[in-house]
Write a structure and sequence with these properties.
The chain is an all-alpha fold.
Length: 366
């Protein structure tokens, strides 16, 4: 009966948290971002404390340097990104139309050979519809994101509220952990601490390591594509690096975007198109063989498919707040699932001997 009450309580609490996140998802972004930022910077604050800094001084120093670097990057990169984003949105329909024309011209002989004129016309019409609708949708989305008043207010609140939230959380982080630790029943304290350490290893290993990987890839792609001379190189490079947070999907999306722009810009110069592919090939080689093993490692415990599912699921439910919380929640769910599986495998329910066969009663003939 006690176990049933505990399970019921935690299920109700989980349902209440999910409903609360869903209802407040529109205003939670700066608070969630501040929480993630404080979590990422806490080890640095602990290191400064070991160097005889007070917690307040360490927090002020860390956030001051972070805000300074962020503002400098924003001042240096934001104008370039704004210009390239506006130009990309304006030229997207023309670029898509040119790409469709090139694909139709180069693929026409092959399609006509195997399917005839009717198949060629069907492919051209379908390709034109898909490319045109996709280009129009992307252009509309980019313009609405850039010029929307609500997006501007959200950006301002993110830039203003997030550092304040991160400051207070970072100052009180250790005290909050100690307070939460005292809430745990003493008989279960070591077990919960072990699960919390396992969650922390998974979350910190992925978030801190993958954030540095995305930063490296964004800078590498932006510089490499700029050296190649690709249009919108900084925009495509940084976006490709940021969405590399999504395993496989991010790098593939950036590659297709850069390749499409390169084909329209450089055709029929295959050397420059190959150079564009070479930038992404070099980035993937460095990520897979040097950067990823060094910064993320193999002991994170988050499968790429599980990460993709969590990002898509939480993103569709809670928007950008869901994207920020997807990986931590995925790590927590993964740790709890593995713990539940271990408990099940060690329980009598798994190890119980099979039930004896039911014997039928002998029937006697009258």
């Amino acid at each position: 009966m006690t176990i049933q009450r505990q399970v019921t309580f935690w299920l109700i609490a989980l349902f209440a948290v999910v409903v609360l996140l869903y209802l407040l998802s529109g205003i939670l972004l700066p608070f969630a971002a501040g929480l993630v930022l404080a979590y990422l910077l806490d080890p640095l604050a602990d290191r400064l404390e070991r160097m005889r800094f007070s917690r307040l001084a360490a927090t002020l120093l860390i956030l001051g340097l972070f805000v300074l670097i962020f503002v400098l990057a924003l001042v240096l990169i934001a104008p370039v990104l704004a210009n390239q984003l506006a130009a990309f949105a304006a030229r997207l329909p023309e670029t898509a139309q040119r790409l469709q024309q090139l694909l139709a011209e180069q693929g026409a002989p092959l399609v006509e050979r195997f399917g005839g004129q009717d198949a060629l016309r069907d492919v051209q019409n379908s390709l034109g519809d898909v490319v045109g609708q996709g280009a129009t949708w992307v252009a509309t989305l980019l313009k609405s994101l850039w010029s929307g008043g609500q997006a501007f207010i959200g950006l301002v609140s993110l830039l203003v509220i997030t550092p304040v939230v991160a400051f207070y959380l970072l100052v009180d982080w250790d005290r909050m952990v100690i307070s939460i630790d005292t809430w745990i029943p003493p008989r279960n304290r070591e077990l919960v601490r072990g699960l919390a350490r396992e969650m922390d290893v998974a979350i910190s290993g992925f978030l801190r390591g993958q954030s540095l990987v995305c930063l490296f890839l964004g800078i590498f792609y932006a510089i490499g594509l700029s050296l190649v001379g690709l249009n919108f190189a900084v925009l495509i490079g940084l976006v490709s690096g940021i969405i590399s947070f999504i395993p496989y999907v991010g790098s593939l999306t950036g590659l297709l975007l850069a390749l499409g722009v390169a084909i329209v810009q450089f055709w029929p110069d295959w050397v420059m198109i190959g150079a564009t592919l070479g930038v992404f090939a070099a980035g993937q080689f460095l990520e897979g063989n040097i950067v990823q093993p060094k910064l993320v490692g193999e002991s994170v415990g988050l499968h790429p498919v599980w990460v993709m599912f969590a990002l898509l699921a939480f993103g569709s439910l809670f928007g950008f707040v869901g994207l920020l919380l997807a990986v931590p929640l995925a790590a927590i769910i993964g740790v709890l699932t593995r713990f539940a599986l271990r408990q099940y495998l060690a329980s009598p329910l798994y190890e119980a001997p099979p039930a004896p066969p039911v014997r039928r009663a002998d029937r006697t003939t009258p």
